[in-house]
Amino acid sequence: MVLDAFSKAVVTADAKTGILSGEEISKLRSFVSEGNKRLDAVNAIASNASCIVSDAIAGMICENQGLIQAGGNCYPNRRMAACLRDGEIVLRYITYALLAGDASVLDDRCLNGLKETYAALGVPTTSTVRALQIMKASSLAHINDTNTEANGGKRFRKMGSQQGDCSALTAEAASYFDRVVSALS
């Protein structure tokens, strides 16, 4: 079951056969007050998703040229396309989790059985993990609006995110990437 922050609080309280505690209400109040930052963070990732994924896959390949040679896991083109597709799917579910403030959508719809599927297909987890690490670094730079033209090149696009401290949101996004890495390891 996919839960947002509000549904999760209600389900938890219901399981305890009680009402929402003051602490739970305070957490929800904080979730709402940080809503624009959360939306900006999701927008920063979603608006740059194809660049984030393609740069991560390119970085992974630069570090392991054997992936694009005959017999490699990104050879021929259809395997490369599948790799890019999978990267975009994972990133999309990370943005869903970030928007909801809850990892259940990521767990239920993306990570459930992913390791077993990749093992059956012979997808190397070390390369996948490396691509995820690159995607994480890039996504966090976009959330914090610390990406620069020097790093982004011609495709650079400054988002102008909500001002203020985004450290909690950055840590939350990082935890979703770490969750995917952990599920594959």
From TrEMBL:
N4-methylasparagine PTM positions: 73
InterPro entries xrefs: Globin-like_sf, Phycobilisome_asu/bsu, Phycobilisome_asu/bsu_sf
Membrane topology: Peripheral membrane protein
Keyword line: Antenna complex, Bile pigment, Chromophore, Electron transport, Hydrolase, Membrane, Photosynthesis, Phycobilisome, Thylakoid, Transport
Main location: membrane
Family indicated by similarity: Belongs to the phycobiliprotein family.
Record's protein name: Bleomycin hydrolase
Organism (species): Brasilonema sennae CENA114
